[in-house]
């Protein structure tokens, strides 16, 4: 169960993220195209490539035939790029490929991925949605497992459904993922049996299919968003006549509700074939043993007499000239303008030449993004940000996009900016400084990939390999990738990047796209007229910008060590410096060449001024966007290009935090940057201007998405305390930089400060750097104030029912049931038991609400609380489903909890909840983020945490079913339940 506070903040920040500059920007996609995209982004493979010579724009039949042939070999067999020699590549006689990679991080674990080159594009018209439906059905009864036994069997062996076993379906692929917490014979046998059953052992029982229909419809409801609906419209406009526009993976309600079993069987038997399968095994394994296990498990898979074929996706006919399009929806978060190029894409084998050809355009697009950042910060600018990109769509279409987000719907003013920056790049290209900055970031990305290669995590590595299967990229070493990149970077200049930009964008027909809340009258004609008028105005060459040096290297006389204490059993040190700064240090080898830092300062929201709802959100936003006194954020991006430094500032319930990640080589610069932010934050007007641009987007989301009701619920749960209140638009816009400075300055300059550092450092180098940075700061308060009154809030009393609504045509509802508990502060042992109780309740919700009723895709439960507030804690159950079902979902979840309180839990349920949790906790011991955030971060502020960490594993192991029953009796049950219903407001007829 997620704490609502970070959930709501993340939803709101989505609007601001579109505007505010991230201090350490991601470099352009490197030419090696290392697999790292998420499943949600699987329709947009990363990479900015120089286009190959165009083939006649007919259909993609030839390209899919190439893809089919390539799927039967490994990419390196058609490439001059060598594959990673540590990987073992193989192919069974039935055509199934496999890749085994021995990787010891984390030790004693293994990750399995089954990639099937089939997705929603392979469906017939009367099968729309069944590729995704099949992904569900393989869990609901197979050759070796009944529907009721698979998940419990996995849980008993430490495998949590959703956490360690999962799957996704895209347009052209389906991937099954299984992470095993150990490599015992029992677990390996289970893992391979499960994966083999996924391949051809699904029972596809008609009764089970009928039971799952509601789950799929619930998932469809949960994924229905304005962005999704607009994407459907945009695909239809940009790819008219393409099969893609009619094969979105979630499918159609009619097919989901009515498709007979034979349609599932048809899709399964024709496309789940060994010739379409690639099995990936990454982990602490012996390749010889794994290879034999693969042969024993999968060699008997057979291909059908008439296997399914890749579909003809339809023609792509690029437009001529400029064609305007408008997409509107009153719920859209922002107004955007784009120039979009669409053309056929011809797949060619991965090669050194191919990778090198991708680099100049990527550098050029990065430079465009930086230009838009600077333009957005100009006083009164009509744009909030902008970008340029190139994407490949399923080896079928090549898309270029040149975009800006518009300020306050001022699209008529923003359109000339879009046109003129596009033309400026076409006519004049880029400056040496722009390309040098982009090159520095790309080179650094490759160099860091080489340094961190020894400690790559098996699960992410396996997922990345699986997601690269359809791309046809060679699984090469980071060293090889760097070697190729160096060749490209050595020859990349402002001139070659200009040439690449022109080759991709010049003389192309373009779509001019406006996305807005309400389509203006005669919009298309107006857009074309404004664009044409803008073209008549001359543009000038971009201005060269001189580089400047970092201005914060001296913070005064270096401090000294006042005291040091070793926590030997946990392997870390606690230091106090002469100025009162606390420091916690733990050296690890979990991430080669990586160092993580976090600083807790002062008392956070406990000190927030009265009647200032949203000030914390405003303050954290403008603080990050304000840069430093001597350097704007734009200056910092240029100064820090190619360096592994960056920070993020946040405001928690009881502390301000400043964190970052760096390398041993850049550790001094990272410490200097953090100290500069403490001593000389920028508080720049450009940050205030950027935030004000975001305000309409923020409130658009609050009005038209569940984020608004969830923010209101959070305020309600905090007793309407204004520190957790939802400001109105005028209030949020009224805050000034002085408001932020007055609140933050005392804490940043003199309040209690505890710095924690975890990672791959050399202490003899680190300590002198600490003394002359953090040790040189002015003296800090040695103890935090109690602030007892500020820690008190009034939690709503149960039982009650409360409804929160928002304005949307999307009929999605959320039901939450909340039971007050003791607060997290001072009650760690109780919350461990609540964690287990939440897992058990989640499993019961899954069985009843998902599996039996089919009313919610992913019902879940768990505890939440605050370490900064007294008595603030609760258990919550959450179910997302149809809006009209929210009351029924809340009542059902309440009754399930009532039964748990009445009858208790079984030892088997406890075991199935505890085993996966223990497996995760064991893995966390080799995770720097765990040591930094959970163990070290406030270990001097609250020394009791150390004993709690020492006893964590033993405490979890000691928990009994009776203890959980007693806790359920005390907290759960109808008389304690707060039912929260969130759904769109009901409209009067005719509205």
Automatic annotation (TrEMBL):
Keywords: Hydrolase, Metal-binding, Metalloprotease, Protease, Zinc. Residues 25-88, 296-315 are annotated as: Disordered. Transmembrane segments: none annotated. Residues 25-34 have a biased composition (Pro residues). InterPro entries: Metalloenz_LuxS/M16, Pept_M16_N, Pept_M16_Zn_BS, Peptidase_M16, Peptidase_M16_C. Its cofactor is Zn(2+). The keyword Nucleotide-binding does not apply. Residues 100-219 form the Peptidase M16 N-terminal domain. PANTHER family: NARDILYSIN (PTHR43690), PROTEIN YHJJ (PTHR43690:SF17). This is Insulinase family protein. It comes from Luteolibacter arcticus.
């Amino acid at each position: 169960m997620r704490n609502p506070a970070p959930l709501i903040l993340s939803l709101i920040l989505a609007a601001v993220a579109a505007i505010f500059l991230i201090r350490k920007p991601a470099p352009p996609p490197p030419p090696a195209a290392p697999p790292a995209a998420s499943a949600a982004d699987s329709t947009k493979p990363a990479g900015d490539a120089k286009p190959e010579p165009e083939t006649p724009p007919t259909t993609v039949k030839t390209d899919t035939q190439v893809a089919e042939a390539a799927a039967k070999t490994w990419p390196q067999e058609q490439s001059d790029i060598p594959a990673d020699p540590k990987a073992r590549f193989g192919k069974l006689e039935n055509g199934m490929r496999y890749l085994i990679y021995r990787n010891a991080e984390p030790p004693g674990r293994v990750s399995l991925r089954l990639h099937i080159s089939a997705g929603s594009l392979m469906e017939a018209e009367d099968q729309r949605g069944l590729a995704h439906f099949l992904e569900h059905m393989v869990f609901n009864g197979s050759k070796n497992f009944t529907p009721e036994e698979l998940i419990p069997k996995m849980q008993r062996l430490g495998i949590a459904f959703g956490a360690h076993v999962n799957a996704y379906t895209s347009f052209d692929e389906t991937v099954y993922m299984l992470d095993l917490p150990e490599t015992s014979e029992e677990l390996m046998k289970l893992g391979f049996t499960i994966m083999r059953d996924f391949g051809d052992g699904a029972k596809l029982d008609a009764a089970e299919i009928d039971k799952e229909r509601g789950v799929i419809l619930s998932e469809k409801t949960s994924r229905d968003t304005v962005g999704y609906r607009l994407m459907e419209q945009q695909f239809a406009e940009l790819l008219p006549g393409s099969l893609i526009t009619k094969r979105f993976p979630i499918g159609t309600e009619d097919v989901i509700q009515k498709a007979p079993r034979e349609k599932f069987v048809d899709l399964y038997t024709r496309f789940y074939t060994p010739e379409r399968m690639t099995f990936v095994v990454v982990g602490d394994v012996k390749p010889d043993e794994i290879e034999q296990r693969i042969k024993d498990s999968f060699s008997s898979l057979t291909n059908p007499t008439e296997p399914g074929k890749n579909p003809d996706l339809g023609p792509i006919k690029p437009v001529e000239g400029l064609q305007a399009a408008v997409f509107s929806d009153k719920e859209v978060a922002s107004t955007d303008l784009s120039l979009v190029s669409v053309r056929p894409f011809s797949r060619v084998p991965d090669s050194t030449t191919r990778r090198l050809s991708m680099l100049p355009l990527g550098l050029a697009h990065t430079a465009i993004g930086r230009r838009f950042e600077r333009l957005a910060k100009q006083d009164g600018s009509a744009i909030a940000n902008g970008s340029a990109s190139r994407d490949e769509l399923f080896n079928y279409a090549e898309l270029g996009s040149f975009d800006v987000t518009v300020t306050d719907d001022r699209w008529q003013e923003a359109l000339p900016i879009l046109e003129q920056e596009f033309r400026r790049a076409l006519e004049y290209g880029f400056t040496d400084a722009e390309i040098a900055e982009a090159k520095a970031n790309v080179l650094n990305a490759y160099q860091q990939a080489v340094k961190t290669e020894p400690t790559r995590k098996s699960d992410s590595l396996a997922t990345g390999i699986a997601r690269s299967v359809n791309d046809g990229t060679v699984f090469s070493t980071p060293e090889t990738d760097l070697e190729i990149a160096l060749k490209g970077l050595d020859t990349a200049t402002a001139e070659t990047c200009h040439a690449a930009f022109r080759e991709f964008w010049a003389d192309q027909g373009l779509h001019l796209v406006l996305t807005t809340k309400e389509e203006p009258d005669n919009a298309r004609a107006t857009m074309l007229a404004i664009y044409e008028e803008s073209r008549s105005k001359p543009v000038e060459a971009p201005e060269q910008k001189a580089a400047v040096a970092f201005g914060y290297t001296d913070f005064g006389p270096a401090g000294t060590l006042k005291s040091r204490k070793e926590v030997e059993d946990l392997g870390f040190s606690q230091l106090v410096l002469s100025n009162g700064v606390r420091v916690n240090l733990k050296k690890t080898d979990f991430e080669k060449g990586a160092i993580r830092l976090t600083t807790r300062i002062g008392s956070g929201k406990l000190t927030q001024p009265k009647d200032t709802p949203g000030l914390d959100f405003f303050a954290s936003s403008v603080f990050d966007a304000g840069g430093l006194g001597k350097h704007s954020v734009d200056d910092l991006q240029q100064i820090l290009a190619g360096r592994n430094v960056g920070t993020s500032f946040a405001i928690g319930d009881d502390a301000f935090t400043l964190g970052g990640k760096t390398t041993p080589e850049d550790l001094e610069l990272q410490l200097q940057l953090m100290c500069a932010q403490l001593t000389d934050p920028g508080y720049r007007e450009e940050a205030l201007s950027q935030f004000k641009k975001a305000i309409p987007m923020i409130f658009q989301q609050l009005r038209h998405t569940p984020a608004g009701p969830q923010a209101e619920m959070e305020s309600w749960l905090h007793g309407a305390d204004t520190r957790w209140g939802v400001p109105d638009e005028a209030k949020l816009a009224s805050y000034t930089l002085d408001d932020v400075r007055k609140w933050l300055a005392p804490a940043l300059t003199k309040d209690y400060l505890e710095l924690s550092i975890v990672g791959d450092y050399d202490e003899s180098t680190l300590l002198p750097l600490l003394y002359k940075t953090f040790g040189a700061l002015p003296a800090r308060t040695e103890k935090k104030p109690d602030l007892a009154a500020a820690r008190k809030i009034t939690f709503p009393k149960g039982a009650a029912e409360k409804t929160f609504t928002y304005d949307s045509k999307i009929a999605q509802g959320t039901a939450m049931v909340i039971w007050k508990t003791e607060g997290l502060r001072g009650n760690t042992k109780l919350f461990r038991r609540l964690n287990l109780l939440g897992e058990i309740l989640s499993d019961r919700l899954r069985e009843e609400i998902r599996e039996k009723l089919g009313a919610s895709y992913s019902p879940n439960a768990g505890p939440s609380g605050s370490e900064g507030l007294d008595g603030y804690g609760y258990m919550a159950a959450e179910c997302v489903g149809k809006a009209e079902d929210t009351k029924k979902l809340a009542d059902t979840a309440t009754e399930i909890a009532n039964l748990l309180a009445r009858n208790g839990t079984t030892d088997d349920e406890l075991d199935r909840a505890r085993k996966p949790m223990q497996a995760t906790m064991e893995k966390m011991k080799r995770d720097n983020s765990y040591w930094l955030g959970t163990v070290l971060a406030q270990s001097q502020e609250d020394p009791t945490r150390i004993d709690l960490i020492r006893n964590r594993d033993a405490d979890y192991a000691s928990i009994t079913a009776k203890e959980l029953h007693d806790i359920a009796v005390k907290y759960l049950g109808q008389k304690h339940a707060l039912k929260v219903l969130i759904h769109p407001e009901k409209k009067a007829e005719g509205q």
